[in-house]
Amino acid sequence: MIRKRLTKYVVAALTVLLTSLGLTAITPAGALDGSKFDPGLIISDSVFFDFGTMTVAEIQRFLESQVPVCKSGTTGMPCLRNYRTDTPEKTADPGKCAYMPAQKDISAATIIYNIARACGINPRVLLVTLQKEQGLVQASIPSPYMYRAAMGYGCPDSDPGICGKVWTGLFNQLYKAAGQFQWYGDPNGSFTYLRPGREVSISYHPDASRNCGKKTFTLKSQATANLYYYTPFVPNTAALNNLRGTGDSCSAYGNRNFWRYYWDWFGSPLGGGFLLKSSTSDTYFISNDIKYPLADPALVTELAPLGPLGEISKEYLDSFPTGTPMTRLIKTAPVSGVSTYYFVSSGKKYLVASCDQATNLGLDCNAAITLTQVQLDALPTGAFRPDITGIVKSIPVAPATASYYMVNASKKYPVDCGKAPLLGFSCTAAPAWDDSKLNALATVRLGVTGLGISALMNLDDGSRVIIQAGKKREVLDDASLTAAGVGPTAPSPLKLKDFSYLPWGAPIAVDGSLFVNRALKREGVIVNGNYFDIDPVTRAEIDFTKLFRQTPGSLGADGLSAIPNTASIKTLVVDARSQHWLLNADGKTKVDDSTNWITAASPVTNELADKFPTLEQTITGFNFVQVKGQKTVYLLKDGIIRATYNAADRDVLDVGMNSTAPVMVTVSGLASIPKGVMVLPAGLVVKNKQTGIVGLIDGASRIVTIAETSMAVTLPEPRALTNLQLIGYQDQEVLSSYKVSCAGLKYIVANSLLHEAQVAVAKDLPGKTTPLSDASCALLTITDQSMGHYVGERITDPKTNKLTYKAYKIIKGKRYPFKNMAAYKKDNLTEPPLIWVDQTFLRNLPLGNEIGGETVDPKPDPKPTPKPKQYTIVAGDSLSSIAIKFNTTVSKIMTLNNIVNADRIRIGQVLKLP
């Protein structure tokens, strides 16, 4: 509807009218382009009917921003920000408004809020209508008529004289207009001729005599239809070309002004506030007729007071030029060439004291976008320091005036009340404190840099993060801040999420600090800019507090993410010099072993390794090792450790060891070396407690067991051991009946003595040759008496105690008795004399026919070999001289006679010759 006074289109007259009514012209939101006005979609339904867009406090703050100071005048009427009245009870009006109770002495903001909610109309729509109808929102000296006809309700163009006579007063005007706005869209009513989705023709001007004509267009929303029901005229091109002035004689301004005021104050009336998107685009922030892409999607939430996010057509969105990406740094329009900068967080704005501070926060003043004053007013200014509880004032003594201070628990900060709102505070209603209360607080004067938001954030989990040079750096503790040259710093009101655009930097931590890693819930250290996690087992064994600075501070995974993070510190480590170390409670032991177990070492830097004192001992790979406080001593050899039985065994096992003192290690250090079974020295005679089997330890895993068929040998008393203690000796061999080899030489055992024998003799004895280690051979006595094919038996007659003698010849595993000794002597012409043996030797040799009586007729070999040439060694012979004598080589003689050592020959020994 067009008010009577809007028929006066002369700019000068309009200016005089505004001045006389105490109206303040609005500050343009930028170069709003009239070409963007869509007559079919002035406002979207989602905006028009959204009754929850503002709280009472927000409405009040908006009214105060439009009229900062109410002027006194002769009208007797307060400006809208200060207006208060009683309101009547209203019964529910179906299709229009819900029930409203009577209320006493409530503000205009409360009236607007209550009616908006009761009638389901956006309070912003009501505010804009109050302004476009009577200019009441910005009137500093309103007239009584402005209140009587506040919404222009009941002011038909056909009879403007009745305006403000029927439904008068602010409450009635708001209530009736809001109800009518809701009723227009009700299908039960009579307002059905303007339907969204259909073409409509709306007049340009109420005076038909001017022949201004009509505009035909498609109506796109019910809300827009409601505006045309209320004010049934569309602005022409002249009115749109001069949005803030007059057009021509055919111009009407009601709906143009509604659209313009809404844009200026609340952003786009199309589906949202200043945050807009199309169905296929990203979100943009609209300011000063430019769309800015959001550098951080979280800004949609952070800018909530400037929302909600609205969706518009792609064509309409594309009509806005695109600016640079919007960051959290915003600014005011310059005043005398200087802008004020703010940081946006959680729907509030916080003062940024300087562009240097912005740079430190990773932001660029040159990229900050300019917000309109309406937009800035919609973002409450947050307190720049959360520790400051408010502003107080002194109690002055005339003629002095009060001084104002920002205060916290221990300090007071003098403040200029003109600048206090920039810091998120107000001197209004500041309580008065006497001198005793003020003097209890230390006075601190803040410089320019101290007035901006702090870069130090106290997080909810107790950790702290500081922003430095565009990076987030977690703070370990106060000592680390001091060491980094950061003095006492006030806390920031900002949250860590506000800096998601920044990378993490190295934590602020004193080198050599021992602290808890919150992500792993265990300790770690920082040394020379590197982080090292400490294996919990190793930490339990080694007191790291003796080597590092322990702090109750902690660091998280993000705070540690920007520095090198190597493997966990375990007991076995290797430094950058490729030197391996075993750590223990006293320091580090050098490891020079090169077997596979050292490959599991955790890599550390030289600086970390050097934190541990170097101990005297060295692990060479052949050592005794022992866990401090435990009895068991282990032998480390060939890359494994094996428990030893006692000190006597170790005296045998330590042959060739550089140092026999056990190297002390931790439990985990011991566990880092592969573990074998108990080690027993070769040559040890043992007896299995469970089986009763006696054996001879003959190597690292070999045992030679003694059976009934084994040769008779004299051995030390066996050590009784369990199956478990002997489990490592699975390489078992039964001691043969006759033959062993020591150091490569074959011997025949008789009477516990080792006799050298010719190969042919050994072949004629049954069974295999049992190889023995040097240690086992050392238990046996080697005699110089060689054994041939002849053995003898001394037999004592039990009745007469008379001794008789019996000789035998061993041929192919049997013993052939001689009739008498004379027969033996006659037969043995070339071999060594017989060896007297006992029954143990003889029992495993079957008895053959007697020699010297019946003829011995052993079966001939299928292929008899020719008798080889022989030579009996005499005094002065050597293998070299024999080889020369018979035109052969030492090697051939040794091979033919199974001789291993060329020096082990004796007089009377018969050699085969090639």
TrEMBL record:
Pfam family, one: LysM
Region (Disordered): 849-868
InterPro entries: LysM, LysM_dom_sf
Domain annotation LysM: ranges: 869-913
Xref: SUPFAM superfamilies: LysM domain
SMART domains assigned to the protein according to its UniProt record, in alphabetical order: LysM (SM00257)
PANTHER family in UniProt: LYSM DOMAIN-CONTAINING GPI-ANCHORED PROTEIN 2, MEMBRANE-BOUND LYTIC MUREIN TRANSGLYCOSYLASE D
Protein name per UniProt: Unannotated protein
